Amino acid sequence: MIKVEIYTTPTCPYCHAAKALLNDKGVSYDEITVLDPELRAAMTQRAHGRRTVPQIFVGTTHVGGYDDLAALDRQGRLEPLLEGAA
Question: pTM of this prediction?
Answer without folding.
Answer: 0.94
